[in-house]
Amino acid sequence: MFRLIKNVWGRVGVIVSTGVLAVAVVVGYMQVASAAIDLTDFSLSLTTIEILVPILLTGGAAMWVVRKLIKSTNRS
After folding, report:
1. Each residue's pLDDT tens digit, 31-73
2. Side-chain-facing half-sphere of 45: CA atoms under 13 Å
């Protein structure tokens, strides 16, 4: 039993150390890449999203209410 736990723990250690190394490599490359990107003139217009989200949320809420009403009338 102890040998099985040792084998499993050894494999977990290899997986964790590989993951830590992969994250370190990715972070290292991202810092280099982010230094080359200039976002001073970047702007994003959210007016379309600000118009559509309340409409979609209201529609979803209305569909939920209608569904609940139909379910409650089918029970009685």
Report:
1. 666 566 677 787 888 899 999 999 999 999 999 999 999 988 8
2. 3
d(CA 9, CA 30): 31
DSSP string, 7-27: HHHHHHHHHHHHHHHHHHHHH
The CA distance from 63 to 19, in Å, is 44
Rounded Cα–Cα distance for residues 14 and 8 (Å): 10
pLDDT digits (tens, 9 = 90+) for 21-38: 888 888 777 766 656 667
d(C-alpha 2, C-alpha 72), whole Å: 57
| DSSP assigned state of 34 | H
Output the pTM of the full model: 0.42
